[in-house]
Design a protein that fits this description.
This protein has 340 residues and is of the alpha/beta class. Helix content is 45%, strand content 19%. The protein contains eleven helices and ten strands. It has helices at 16-43, 60-76, 91-98, 112-120, 156-166, 180-192, 204-212, 223-232, 278-292, 295-304, 313-334; strands at 49-53, 80-84, 106-111, 132-147, 170-174, 196-200, 218-222, 236-240, 265-273, 306-308. Strands 1, 2, 3, 4, 5, 6, 7, 8, 9 and 10 form a ten-stranded mixed β-sheet that branches. Helix 2 (60-76) crosses helix 9. The protein is globular and about 65 Å long. The termini are far apart.
Length: 340
């Protein structure tokens, strides 16, 4: 057996059968040496998992996470506790997991803000490409630009007229600094040549509450949460932020049709702390993809107007890098800075 100083030297035998036997024995020893790790990977998880959602309860990311985790927990045979840790444009919740032990028990669901924060936040407390590992993409929701009925705005033309008439900047809400709703609102103001005041919230749910109450004028939001309010007349859809008319809302014109070329959506995906074993990442990815294809999730996604985004960890990593570059270009061109 090898010592701490290195393996003993051995003169190769001349007899081919003896050589073959030694080669087989060496292979078996190598396999046995690797066996504990393999058994550990097969045994994972041995205790409950937690998934952090860096938004308040009630938004699309929270909904998708809880829905998918319910199915994943069944397959893994361990409960998954979903924890909401909003704040600082999702930085607080993401940092919590980035600094967690890479033992396969902690994960975080991120959205567009994860990519935007790379450019927006000067000193992130974590390295987004080293301290976290992409596991799996989950879902994507189209955005709608909406307002409350009391604003009198029904279209982009009405919005222009409202700005001219008021002589003051109108307000728009977002899920928080650096979120897709924030950047889309800034792009809207830039393309229209008007001033809009950004009002960030700690998630979509509280922002939507104030939009419904008329405390803010406009908001880009996820269609699944806005649909019932638009259909009931509690909100007015100014336009869909889609390249072409949405199959989920074919009667609502796009912003592009109205002269404002803005395509916006919210995606969400699962990350693990950097250093999490490959076997854990691959297993979790496989279970998330299975969950996305399960009848309960498929039905809920179709009903809610959410698109399923499955794929490998490597594809998610490439997606994140592309999103970082895309948001960096948008942020720098628009001169967007964080609100205090």
């Amino acid at each position: 057996m090898p010592t701490s100083e290195g393996p003993p030297t051995m003169t190769p035998p001349k007899h081919p059968l003896t050589r073959r036997r030694l080669m087989v024995a060496a292979g078996a020893a190598t396999a046995l040496a690797a066996l504990p790790g393999a058994l550990h990977a097969q045994a994972w998880p041995t205790r409950p998992l937690r998934v952090v959602v860096p938004f308040p309860p009630g938004g699309t990311t929270d909904f998708v996470t809880r829905l998918v985790c319910t199915e994943v927990a069944k397959a893994l045979g361990q409960p998954i506790v979903v924890e909401n840790k909003p704040g600082a444009g999702t930085v607080i919740g993401v940092d919590n997991v980035a600094k967690s032990p890479p033992d396969g028990t902690s994960f975080v669901t991120v959205a567009n803000s994860f990519a935007a924060n790379v450019t927006l936040v000067k000193k992130l407390p974590y390295d987004p490409l080293k301290d976290l590992r992409p596991v799996a993409l989950m879902g994507m929701s189209e955005h709608v630009l909406a307002t409350h009925p009391g604003s009198g705005i029904r279209s982009v033309a009405d919005l222009r007229a409202a700005v001219r008439k008021s002589g003051a900047a109108l307000s728009y809400a977002s899920f928080g600094n650096g979120t897709s709703a924030h950047l889309s609102g800034a792009a809207l103001a830039q393309q229209m040549g008007v001033e809009l005041v950004h009002v960030p919230y700690k998630g979509q749910a509280p922002a939507l509450t104030d939009l419904l109450g008329g405390q803010v004028t406009l908001m880009f939001g996820n269609w699944p949460e806005f649909r019932s309010h638009v259909q009931s007349g509690k909100l007015v859809a100014v336009g869909m932020a889609t390249a072409k008319r949405s199959t989920h809302a074919p009667d609502i014109p796009t912003l592009t049709e109205q002269g404002v070329a803005i395509v916006s959506n919210s995606w969400n995906g699962l990350l693990a702390p950097g250093g999490t074993p490959d076997a854990v990442v691959q297993r979790m990815n496989a279970e998330v993809n299975r969950a996305l294809a399960s009848p309960p999730v498929v039905e809920a996604f179709q009903k809610g107007g959410i698109a399923s985004l499955s794929g490998t960890p490597e594809q998610f990593a490439a997606f994140i890098r592309a999103e970082i570059e895309q948001y960096a270009a948008v942020i720098r061109k628009a001169g967007i800075t964080l609100d205090t």
